[in-house]
């Protein structure tokens, strides 16, 4: 791919991931994105940076994934005209990311969807929170209602759902256009729990930044902590010990396992099989109690830190974690047989919320949902960092792309995670659990990424001359998968939406940064 751009200077990025950094012009960025797409690659994320204090204007950063590396393309924009080409024509999943960059930094596209995305009357039109000179200000006056796309025709009506829901979940608005109960279109409106996390990172020391990263999305605390630590270690020339990396692997796989267990139970419940919820909830509770015994926390927040891990575990904890894995593995086999052979469950699962391989590829679907639609990509194998190795993680793939396929991938991944935990715990290396960090060059870019339970979690970090966080951009896979949910529900009936939605189980918190 690089051979197509002989004039570009691809500079290797330090760190555990195979990655390069390249400065581009507008035309080169568009051409590079097209080349990556045509070669089977995808858009990882994009974000904006205010570099006026360094004598520049603004910087648009676009992270791209090819078969064998990550590329961060950097486009410099003039301070007076921070406008760039619409990348959504190449990567449809860029649309909401671009709208968020417009709301937060004030960088605008030439064409495309220019509606606000995260701007819920929180800021005046001329306030952009991620600019360095943005000051806290009272909320702006209420703005006109959001311009949802209208579907018209005989018998068509709208059903608005949310943003406040009956369950104890975060807020999101779903606007259904339906005929009878058949869904013609769904349009989402998110951003209600925007927390200012990216702004809060500014000026934090490295360890306080690690604490914040662990709280981006609570069900992915290990994934975010690891991605952040990897980014810091890249610019601070630190290589964690084999023991620390093995413990990180155990923590990440148990996080994956906990979420899959919870979702498998909830999916059974949404299909009217309450006993499934009871059994899977019990298994998840057993896992969380084992976590508390080993790490002092049910959800091991702040365990992964830059340079290694915070807590070592002894032989007793290792034996208890192995025993817990064995108990879960035995029951998973029985429960899977029940799910696979229960006519009522299969009637609800099969054919519901289908996403074809073609559509999944076109829209940039990632993670377990993508693997359920025939896209065999898992960063644990594609970009392996210790303790993972290439082809050491079996990648579960289905082609049906429906709820049943996403359930099947979850079952496969629970079994694979248990096997990985057994292997890592049985051969836990000796050694220290943390190493010192070295001074980092001001402005150097560090990136980190791991395959969280939903999909790839990515973090980009720049430090200042004092070693504090100048800019941190955490990115959740839900950004790519929320738009696909709008397509998955088309031609299904409204009562199937909770089941289809749960089969993706996307993050509001990880999206509304």
Describe the 3D structure.
This protein has 513 residues and is α+β, with helices and mostly antiparallel strands. It folds into 2 domains: 2-110, NADH:ubiquinone oxidoreductase Nqo5 subunit (Beta Polymerase, domain 2, 2-Layer Sandwich); 205-475, Cytochrome-c3 Hydrogenase, chain B, CATH 1.10.645. The chain is built from 15 helices and 15 strands. It has helices at residues 26-38, 94-104, 197-201, 206-213, 221-235, 242-270, 274-295, 315-341, 343-349, 357-363, 367-371, 379-382, 403-426, 478-488, 497-504; strands spanning 11-12, 19-24, 42-50, 58-65, 70-77, 83-85, 108-110, 156-161, 173-179, 182-189, 304-305, 308-309, 445-451, 456-463, 469-475. Strands 1-2-5-4-3 form a 5-stranded mixed β-sheet, covered by helices on one side. A 3-stranded antiparallel β-sheet has the order 8-9-10. It is globular, with a radius of gyration of 23 Å. The relative contact order is 0.14.
Which structural traits does this protein have?
3-stranded antiparallel beta sheet, alpha+beta, Cytochrome-c3 Hydrogenase, chain B, 5-stranded mixed beta sheet, 15 helices, Beta Polymerase, domain 2, 2 domains, 513 residues
Quick recap:
By secondary structure, the chain is of the alpha+beta class.
How big a fraction of the residues is strand? 15-25%
- What count of domains describes the coordinates? 2
Report the count of strand segments: 15
- With strands numbered from the N-terminus, the spatial order across the biggest sheet is 1-2-5-4-3
Mean pLDDT across residues: 95
What do we call the CATH topology of the largest domain?
Cytochrome-c3 Hydrogenase, chain B
